[in-house]
DNA sequence: GAATCATATAAGTGTATGCTTATATATCCT
DNA sequence: AGGATATATAAGCATACACTTATATGATTC
């Protein structure tokens, strides 16, 4: 739940790839494993780390476990970054465009 | 320069603390060391990691080296995060307030 | 109830990380 | 030039990390 956990979780390329796939929609562990040349326990361990960092959430469905993004992690990332908004890119326009999208 | 380097750099509490101090204004390595119960080489190594991740920039001034935040790092963080704007906190108001501040 | 499937946990291993002390390099001062 | 100051680099060490194989747990299916 700490910032350190959050950044550490995202510091691994495999975990960022897993996270990115989950952004497209929830998925169980077996489906997530596809495309990674890695053992099942390895993925399971990565998922545990993402989960305890607050980046993903899980839901048991029978013998499957569905994983989805937990917005809390992104929110905390966002919060950390907002401290440094003085250094954010000058493309405020882009941010404005984004806001417009969110309003719709 | 990679995302992995970026997240790894920020995954260490000392480095985040250094970064945070630099957000208040540029500082040389000796000044930065104050408040950290750590050897000079340790801080120097942390600075090298932050630098190669693109998070800080350095400028030699005689025998001193001035460090300051490099906006590129924050920009790349921001860019990474923007991929997941669908999961951003709903407090759009806060973001709007921020934008207003930036406009002024 | 036994075999199978989905996932997690345990234990072990090589490599990376964050420190340390010792030393090098470069600048400033007298 | 010689000593002090500011910083970086080298080498070494203990701990953390990302894997592996083997095994456990629990849900399904036959």
Kindly describe this structure.
Two copies of one chain form a homodimer. Chain A has 104 residues and is of the alpha+beta class. Chain A has one domain: Orthogonal Bundle (Arc Repressor Mutant, subunit A), CATH 1.10.10.10. Chain A contains six helices and three strands; from the N terminus they run ααβααββαα. Chain A has a three-stranded antiparallel beta sheet with strand order 1-3-2. In chain A, strand 2 and strand 3 form a beta hairpin. At the A-B interface, helix 1, helix 2, helix 5 and helix 6 of A face helix 1, helix 2, helix 5 and helix 6 of B. Chain B binds a DNA duplex (30 and 30 nucleotides) through helix 4.
How is this structure best summarized?
Two copies of one chain form a homodimer. Chain A is α+β, with helices and mostly antiparallel strands and 104 residues long. Helices cover 59% and strands 13% of the residues of chain A.
């Amino acid at each position: 739940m700490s910032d350190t956990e959050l950044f550490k979780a995202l510091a691994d390329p495999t975990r960022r790839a897993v996270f990115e796939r989950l952004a497209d929609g929830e998925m169980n562990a077996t489906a997530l494993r596809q495309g990674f040349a890695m053992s099942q326990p390895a993925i399971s361990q990565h998922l545990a780390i993402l989960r305890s960092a607050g980046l993903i959430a899980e839901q048991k469905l029978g013998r499957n476990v569905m994983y989805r993004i937990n917005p809390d992690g992104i929110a905390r990332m966002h919060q950390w970054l907002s401290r440094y908004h003085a250094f954010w890119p000058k493309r405020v326009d882009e941010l404005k465009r984004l806001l417009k999208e969110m309003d719709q």
